[in-house]
Amino acid sequence: MTRIIAGTAGGRRLATPSGDSTRPTSERVREALFARLEHLDALHGASTLDLYAGSGALGLEAASRGASRVVLVERDRKAAAVAGRNVRDLGLAGVSVRAEAVERVVAAPGEPFDLVFIDPPYDLGEEVLAGVLAELADGLLTEHAVLVVERSSRSPEPVWPADVELIGPRRYGETTVWFAEYVPEGDAA
């Protein structure tokens, strides 16, 4: 069972896609991830992008904890439909679902985001992930935006664009969560 951990929708259950199309983030990892984001003061009022969203658990947790706008992006139509049902069932304001390929969404101009979750399938190639990160840094991030990348603990550190600084990884068994911050050139301390 997947549920929202805390916030206005805390304890509410989420539907999850059936089959192997998605890999839900465990509750233990989500709890630790969101504790870190709260420590970084990255949630309240944040404009949030959840890439490879699956059921939408990460983005919906952010909305429950005070994110002002959340966009869930999921290419798999069945998973996107489940995410849409979760959005409707929870009734959280400011949350939308885009049933499109992540690469297409990040390549298009749009409003920048303060917080981005990137939780791709573990078999996504490192060069594809690097391309997504580069596109994000090319106009879709606000100054000091926080990026959260979830990968297999066997995967190497993501290739960060020049203006993205690593905050640090956290390892939870088979999962490693990488936290980074967008610091545009000339803004480094």
TrEMBL record:
Q: Where is this region: Disordered?
A: 1-26
Instruction: Establish whether keyword Aminoacyl-tRNA synthetase is in the entry.
Output: no
* A Gene Ontology BP annotation from the UniProt entry: rRNA methylation
Which superkingdom does the taxonomy of this entry point to? Answer: Bacteria
Alphabetical keyword list: Methyltransferase, Transferase
Q: List the molecular function annotations (GO) for this entry.
A: methyltransferase activity; nucleic acid binding
Q: What is this protein called?
A: 16S rRNA (Guanine966-N2)-methyltransferase
Q: Which organism is it from?
A: Calidifontibacter indicus
